[in-house]
Write a structure and sequence with these properties.
Helix content: 40-55%
Number of strands: 10
Catalytic activity: DNA(n) + a 2'-deoxyribonucleoside 5'-triphosphate = DNA(n+1) + diphosphate
Radius of gyration: 24 Å
Order of helices and strands: HHHHEEHHEHHHHHEEHEEEEEHHHH
GO molecular function, one term: RNA-directed DNA polymerase activity
Family: Belongs to the bacterial reverse transcriptase family.
Protein name: RNA-directed DNA polymerase
Oligomer: single chain
EC number: 2.7.7.49
Amino acid sequence: MNKPDITKWQSYFKDIGLRDDLIEAYLPFIKQCLTQEIPPIFERNHLSLLVGRSNDDLMAMAFGTQSFYREFRLKKRSGGYRKIRAPYPSLLEVQQWINDYILKSANLPNCATGFREGYSIIDNAKMHCGRDELLKVDVKDFFPTINFSRVIKVFLNFGYPSDVSFILSRLCTLNGELPQGAASSPMLSNIICNDMDRRMVKLCKSHRLRYTRYADDIAISGKNIPKGVARLFFEIIESEGFGINEKKIRFLKKGERKIVTGLDITTGSPRVTRKFRRDIQRDVYFVWSAGLSSHVARRRIFAPNYVDHLEGRVQFWASVEPENRQMQRTLDRIRIIRAVHGSTTAIG
């Protein structure tokens, strides 16, 4: 948004004939919003205009939220499945507006590396390279733990009226909790974890440690992580209303293989894991040498746009290890595959 300009609002209010007492009541709120670079929202009808939905449609989304979601399961790397609740396009667009115009304006610490522009899993992993010891902690049921009352506080802290904050919170929650598939959930979780992150960073600095959090994935590293300090980290997490998945706590010492947000940092710089590297080289080699049809038939692959999938994996490898010779050879092969198959990459 542009630099706060209250005079334009004053002129607009006078043009529409708004009473002077109401103008004086509105201006401090507007100034606060513009200073934070968020849009002023006066009431629910105003919100419906801003998001481009009728008031009836918006209220249906807010008070009949379950009808605007579908559920599916994603397989976890550690085994089992994670339930994902994804909003239908109408609600998704509203949540995206809330995310882009309100939530992204929040001031977050650098240790929060997930779901933010200019940050990636590579940045997260780099923070812990060259450190002798690593403590990994997984927050249990991260998104469902964040309930409606915590979400509404976010919008109230932005300065929005209680009725507007209530509607915004209803649009961003499902059954009183934060759904993992909502467009607004990642940034809301980052904002709600702000106090926890700052407390963790303060404790780390006093012990010459580093802390990052990528959603529910917490990493702490340093030359030495005393056990007593580790217990203090757990106490902070729990005091902030979160649980700890004790089965996923990992304490790794010097010389042990260290994986942070899926990247191997054992050598002192982020690399894709050995398994990732082996699998993508194998798949690309067989498509390159034996042809797409032969490979997908032998491996019983039914995914559409399989070459796009392969290329995306190689490009990810390139973003992590741009100088890796094996990656460059694999990238050359995927370019040959792309030249042969063009944009027609679906399995037929």
